[in-house]
Design goal:
The protein is an all-alpha fold. It contains 14 helices and no strands.
Length: about 300
């Protein structure tokens, strides 16, 4: 069953949707940088006894492509997750989920710019429509905020995080599918931890860190296992099996799962601008993929 990219991607987006909700809850106990750092330290320790042999077997490839692996680790482990947790200190879990829904169009835009894909007029229209949907959400339905520079910094941080992960997803396709997925994940986590470390040390300087209790143990346990080990393993495997564009389409489910879980567990309210923005983004993806494919086949 885990050879099916669709199943892998549904589970991945469910865990990532839950990550936004747990990350929002976690700000009552720790900073976003603290959560990101310890999430990956714990994930590394859990994965190490399972994957170290596989990692060593592929060491020759890693040495030949060190700069690519450094970039992949910094974009995913270091940048994406840290910025998401920091963003949750300023914005809602629902907003984070909706902004995440722009990833398919960002992945397609990058493959188009890199010459990997050609875009017809429907796909270009989809990109423009997705941009409108994002602007509607981050401006909370008041587009005048875009010109007055009163946007929520959390939404802007999340946009940056999603763009970085879109670049990561496109670059992942450069890796050979025969690489061991767990060994690769172990290496990316290790590099990513060192990318976060300077910011973590700066963040905790001059103040007390969080204390361990039942809540923080559950928070760290969830983020270390589900959106870290399982989601990244599933995502990397799905990208290698089905490609970045197919994987990108499923990220729409992050906004659905995050919104539902935020309403249930955090008591957040789904506002009209969330619905309008999400609908616009989904329509944009529909235009850029299925409608565009049908149009091309008719030509």
């Amino acid at each position: 069953m885990l050879e099916r990219p669709a199943l892998l991607l549904v589970l991945t987006t469910l865990f990532w949707g839950g990550n936004a909700v747990v990350g929002k809850f976690a700000i009552n106990y720790m900073s976003g940088i603290e959560l990101s750092f310890w999430r990956w330290v714990l994930a590394f320790l859990i994965l190490l006894p399972i994957a170290w042999r596989a990692c060593l077997r592929d060491l020759a490839y890693y040495r030949r492509h060190l700069w690519l692996l450094l970039l992949l680790a910094l974009l995913s482990v270091s940048l994406y997750n840290s910025l998401q947790y920091v963003a949750l200190q300023f914005t809602t879990a629902i907003n984070v989920g909706v902004v995440s829904a722009t990833m398919p169009l960002e992945v397609f835009l990058l493959t188009w710019l890199f010459g990997q894909e050609r875009a017809n007029w429907l796909q270009k229209l989809g990109m423009l429509l997705a941009l409108v949907g994002v602007c509607w959400v981050v401006s909370r339905g008041d587009l005048q905020l875009l010109t007055s520079l009163q946007l929520n910094p959390g939404d802007l941080l999340m946009l940056t995080a999603v763009f970085g992960f879109a670049v990561y997803s496109v670059l992942m396709k450069k890796l050979p599918p025969e690489l061991d997925k767990l060994g690769l994940l172990l290496l990316l986590i290790l590099i990513g931890i060192f990318g976060i470390l300077p910011f973590y040390l700066w963040d905790i300087s001059g103040r007390d860190t969080f204390s361990l209790n039942s809540d923080t143990v559950l928070i760290l346990g969830y983020v270390a296992i589900f959106p870290s080990l399982l989601s990244y393993y599933f995502w990397n495997k799905a990208v290698l099996l089905g490609g970045a564009n197919q994987a990108g389409l499923f990220t729409n489910l992050i906004s659905v799962f995050a919104s539902l879980l935020a309403v249930i567990f955090l008591g957040e309210r789904l506002q009209s601008y969330h619905v309008i923005g999400m609908t616009t983004i989904f329509l944009a993806i529909l235009l850029a993929t299925y409608v565009s494919r049908w149009y091309s086949q008719r030509q």
